[in-house]
Specification:
The complex is a heterodimer. Chain A is mostly helical. Chain A has a domain of about 45 residues. Helix content of chain A is about 55%, strand content about 0%. In chain B, strand 4 and strand 5 form a beta hairpin. In chain B, helix 2 packs across helix 3. Classes of the chains: A mainly alpha, B alpha+beta. Chains A and B meet through helix 3 of A and strand 5 and helix 3 of B.
């Protein structure tokens, strides 16, 4: 009886070892790749991080170059007049006085 | 040579002014001609005798570059103070709006004259400092106004 139990336990032990070895040699079953959901852009996320606001502004209809240049020169004249006015009587009010410049309004 | 000067020779006697004038070389620029380019070496000061000089800065507009008028110089006014102030590079472009006559005062001749007549040098330098100071104050104010608008637009 004792011998029978010994052989039985030894058989179990051998089978267990064989089972472990077979499991180790058998090719691993590939796990199905976990599909990451595509990262969607959040609506308020900037599409170009370094892009300036100027680039994202909706383009205005182009005016002729000559007209634009005349607007710029008028802006310069008005701003210089405003600056001259400030220098004559310096105050916070005159420093930031409103302008009629077409480039600003 | 009797030419009205609105800034350069203020405070000088007629004799002193005449001595300065004797250092000048006449220059004639045709309509549309360039007196000096932005960044060019500045070795002389100019006094407008007749005509008009436009001082401009380049601005990138669309695909090209355009000269934007910043200041006009009329008869009696001085321009090109970079000729006296280091690093002696013009910081604007000067173009004749019409056929224009000027007097050019070479820096070397002026400095030599100032060395010989320190009181004259002080007076002229003070006049040039007034022109420079006014330009600085104008642009400081323009900058402050522009900053104010930027703050209002972005952070109002």
């Amino acid at each position: 009886m004792f011998m029978f139990l010994t052989i039985l336990l030894a058989s179990f032990a051998v089978m267990a070892v064989c089972g472990i070895m077979v499991a180790g040699l058998a090719p691993h079953e590939e796990k199905a790749p976990v599909v990451q959901p595509e990262r969607t852009l959040v609506a308020d996320e900037p599409t170009h991080f370094f892009a300036s606001d100027a680039e994202t502004v909706t383009p205005r209809p182009q005016i002729p170059l000559e007209v634009l240049l005349s607007h710029i020169e008028r802006h310069v004249r008005l701003e210089q007049a405003a600056a001259q006015s400030f220098l004559s009587v310096p105050s916070a009010g005159s420093l930031h006085s409103r302008t009629e410049s077409p480039l600003v309004n | 040579m009797s030419i009205e000067t609105k800034d350069l020779l203020l405070g000088l006697s007629e004799v002193e002014a005449a001595r300065i004038m004797a250092l000048a070389v006449p220059v004639r620029i045709p309509s549309g001609g360039v007196l000096f380019q932005l960044g060019a070496e500045a070795d002389r000061l100019f006094l407008v005798v007749r005509g008009r000089i436009d001082l401009t800065l380049p601005m990138r507009i669309r695909e090209g570059e355009e000269d934007v008028l910043l200041e006009e110089k009329h008869p009696g006014e001085t321009l090109g103070w970079s000729g006296l102030i280091p690093p002696h590079r013009f910081t604007l472009k000067a173009k004749a709006q019409m056929e224009t006559e000027l007097l050019a005062f070479p820096r070397a001749a002026l400095l030599a004259h100032f060395d010989a007549h320190p009181a004259v040098g002080l007076a002229v330098t003070r006049n040039v400092a007034t022109v420079i100071g006014h330009r600085l104050q104008i642009f400081q104010t323009l900058w402050a106004r522009e900053m104010q608008r930027m703050v209002e637009q972005r952070y109002a």
